[in-house]
Write a structure and sequence with these properties.
The complex is a heterodimer of chains A (140) and B (336).
Chain A: E1 2-5, H1 10-21, E2 26-30, H2 37-47, E3 62-66, E4 74-79, H3 86-91, H4 94-98, E5 103-107, E6 121-127, E7 133-139
Parallel strand pairs in A: 2-5, 2-6, 4-5
Antiparallel strand pairs in A: 1-7, 3-4, 6-7
Chain B: E1 5-10, E2 16-22, E3 25-32, H1 45-67, E4 76-82, H2 86-103, E5 107-111, H3 112-118, E6 131-136, E7 141-148, E8 151-157, H4 163-173, H5 180-188, H6 211-227, H7 231-262, E9 266-270, H8 277-290, E10 293-295, H9 306-319
Parallel strand pairs in B: 1-4, 4-5, 6-9, 9-10
Antiparallel strand pairs in B: 1-2, 2-3, 6-7, 7-8
The chains are: A alpha/beta (140), B alpha/beta (336).
């Protein structure tokens, strides 16, 4: 699946994304710095009526949000940007989160690719211009 | 008033810290910075929790010794309960529980972000209520309305990157080593802040967004490097000054908006980014313009430290707000 959006149309993109993605648990968001990974996840969490503050987990590594309504009731928003290896990601508790059947939204998944051995959704964000983004979504 | 000694422990991220607070006065405040992280370019949590385990006993022992207080004379144990890296928080939480249980002491659970605000009440002159606090660090950016010691409201916060993270990520794009924020500040001092205009992102209410400037800098650098491969090297100071100017302008804009709309003139900043010279200068200027009384805690109380946990625990002790042994740490940022 492919989506093209700007900040003005991101809300529609988020809806379409979720319609397609909601049965998956693990979603890996790739894209260079400034591509809008955190921004998309922020909008997605708002769409899912998450009340917690949704912000970049680069510093905290794992943010945890409560998801109202249906199970699973937890979203782990992870950022592997500062990890140097799969081993570090495991030691950091990333695998524990991945195995909980909770929603896991992962930024910078390429830092520890071996952790993604189960079914997951690959979400690649490309910059078409300064304001326009293309998202390619592939179940793996 | 009888003497109340509180042992406070902070272990939410890089720092293992312990402090002894006696009736609201800091007797000691020890911080074991995990310098090992610098070579890895950030906080690596497993290393962080392992280092916390190695650090916590010597740090607590030294804090007691420096304060001249025996552990038998401690009246309560406080610890950072949330938010943070769960493995790191667990070390402090378990240590505090064990200490409290062994000596039959009450436990006090402290929210890290509330503690950053209350760091203003360690040294005089202390702010008058109500006051506004801008908390800015590598992981957080918040405007907090503080009505009383334990009565606070987060008015606005970042919807994406923290201000300190924006500094660090721009530094990374410029090829500067970790931690990049202080280096950007240093280079900015000699640069022209008006040379390269970057967009100021305006969010609803009192919220912040720093992802826009990150993208703007990324595109700006890409375009300039096509024309001049040495663009960054040749213009580093001006780029740093311009980026810093823009980030500080975004911070001040919301702070001034909140101060004006709520009619508050007591203003504070907290968090590690409060060391940024551009932010300090802008805050001083805004203070003169608006007739604010500006409060900035000593730097050792701005970065993560146990003294701020201790001062918060002091006010919780006075209110009888204790935790029981079933208390668990939480990674979630919601205020308890």
């Amino acid at each position: 699946m492919e989506l093209t959006y700007t900040l003005t149309t991101i809300h529609t993109a988020v809806q379409e994304f979720w319609e397609y993605a909601k049965d998956m648990r693990i979603m890996a968001f790739s894209g260079e710095m400034g591509a809008g990974k955190t921004t998309f996840i922020h909008e997605l969490c708002r769409f899912l009526k998450v009340k917690d503050a949704v912000s970049s987990p680069t510093f905290a590594l794992i943010n945890e949000y409560a998801l109202p309504g249906d199970k699973p009731s937890i979203i782990y928003h992870m950022d592997w940007y500062r990890l140097n290896s799969t081993e570090e990601a495991i030691q950091a508790g990333m695998e524990d989160c991945l195995l909980q059947n909770a929603y896991c939204f992962i930024e910078w998944p390429e830092k520890a690719p071996e952790l993604l051995h189960g079914p997951y959704l690959s979400v690649k964000i490309e910059l078409l211009s300064e304001v326009e983004r293309q998202m390619v979504i592939t179940p793996l | 008033m009888s003497i109340v000694n509180i042992l406070a422990i902070e272990s939410s991220c890089d720092e293992t810290s312990a402090a002894i607070i006696q009736n609201g006065i800091v007797l000691s405040n020890l911080i074991a910075t995990q310098q090992v992280h610098e070579q890895y370019g950030g906080v690596v949590p497993e290393m962080a929790s392992r280092a916390h385990m190695q650090n916590i006993l010597p740090v607590v022992d030294t804090a007691l010794k420096n304060a001249g207080v025996d552990k038998k004379d401690i009246h309560a144990v406080a610890f950072t309960q949330a938010p943070g890296l769960i493995g790191s928080l667990l070390v402090g939480t378990c240590f505090a529980k064990g200490f409290a249980q062994a000596l039959d002491l009450p436990l006090i659970a402290v929210h890290h972000m509330q503690a950053h605000v209350l760091a203003h009440f360690i040294d005089a002159p202390k702010p008058q209520f109500p006051f506004l606090c801008l908390t800015v660090s590598g992981g957080h950016t918040q405007v907090v309305l503080c009505k009383d010691y334990l009565d606070m409201q987060v008015l606005g916060e970042t919807v994406d990157d923290a201000a300190g993270e924006a500094f660090d990520k721009v530094a990374k794009m410029l090829g500067l080593p970790y931690p990049g924020g202080p280096l950007v500040d240093k280079l900015a001092k000699e640069g022209d802040a008006r040379r390269f205009p970057f967009p100021v992102t305006d969010m609803n209410g009192y919220d912040f967004s720093f992802s826009g400037i990150k993208t703007a800098v990324l595109y700006f650098l890409q375009a300039q490097k096509k024309k001049d491969p040495d663009f960054v090297a040749n213009n580093l100071k001006d780029i740093c000054a311009s980026v810093q100017y823009t980030i500080v302008a975004m911070l001040l804009k919301k702070l001034e908006k909140a101060a004006a709309e709520l009619g508050i003139k007591e203003i504070g900043i907290a968090g590690g980014v409060s060391a940024n010279s551009g932010l300090r200068a802008a805050l001083t200027a805004a203070g003169e313009k608006n007739g604010w009384t500006v409060h900035i805690p000593k730097f050792e109380y701005c970065t993560d430290n146990a003294a701020m946990i201790g001062i918060t625990a002091h006010y919780k002790y006075l209110k009888g707000q204790f935790a029981d042994l079933s208390v668990t740490p939480s990674a979630r940022a919601a205020w308890s």
